[in-house]
Design brief:
With 217 residues, the protein is mostly helical. 66% of the residues lie in helices and 0% in strands. Helix 3 runs antiparallel to helix 4 (64-77), helix 4 crosses helix 5 and helix 9 (182-189) crosses helix 10 (194-216). It starts with a helix and ends with a helix.
Length: 217
């Protein structure tokens, strides 16, 4: 199965991604139910991204589901800042918030040892009244979550997380998971041309397929 086809199926049961744009507009007009429905759609994909980006050495201090919950809280407060151009703009915006949250937590941990009183304040801030109503479901698969936690998805994510060099992981994440266009990927990876980025993607995908094929053989 193509990694690109896996990455380009973020919603259950073929849900129309353009409906997500309508949910954003409704949410920006104050419809809390629309915000909850919007974020629920993106939880499976965001979890996959976070589990790939947060390595095993960081897991003791940076828990993917904690980052996911905080991402949704921040996004709910800042939804009016989202400049919506295409359906993929939503996922890229959420992913940017998640990246910032990961960076923030790692910097905090490197700067000083955990201060229980500060940790308590951080939790209290997150529990404020304007907190988003979406509850991040358990990472353990349930029948209702089976579409997002299939065996093939787990296999692709596992091998992508281990893929080297780092640019291989990043180009697949940007294209297949974040749904970024080629020009945006070129700019992020600082490549000389779109063709160079596409060549990098092809090499990365080929190596990922080889890893998966060896595992299955």
């Amino acid at each position: 199965m193509s990694t690109e086809s896996k990455g380009n199926a973020p919603f259950p049961d073929g849900a129309d991604p353009t409906h997500s744009m309508e949910l954003v507009w409704q949410g920006q007009r104050g419809n809390a139910g629309a915000v909850n429905e919007l974020f629920t759609r993106y939880i499976p994909r965001l979890r996959r991204i976070l589990c790939i980006k947060i390595n095993s050495a960081q897991r003791a201090a940076v828990v993917p589901d904690d980052v996911l919950q905080e991402t949704l809280i921040v996004a709910s407060r800042r939804l009016n800042e989202l400049e919506l151009r295409t359906p993929s703009s939503i996922l890229q915006w959420l992913s940017k918030i998640a990246d910032y949250e990961i960076k923030n937590r790692l910097e905090y941990l490197h700067a000083q040892k955990r201060d229980p009183s500060r940790e308590l304040r951080m939790r209290s801030d997150s529990d404020s009244e304007d907190q988003v109503g979406v509850v991040v479901p358990s990472e353990d698969p349930t029948p209702s979550q089976s579409f997002a936690r299939s065996e093939m998805e787990d296999l692709v994510d596992m091998h992508l997380k281990q893929l080297e060099p780092a640019d291989y992981r990043e180009v697949i994440l940007l294209r297949d998971y974040y749904e970024a266009d080629w020009e945006k990927i070129r700019s992020i990876l600082d490549r000389p041309s779109i063709e160079a980025v596409q060549d990098l993607y092809k090499r990365a995908e080929k190596k990922l397929r080889e890893r998966i094929g060896k595992f299955l053989s």
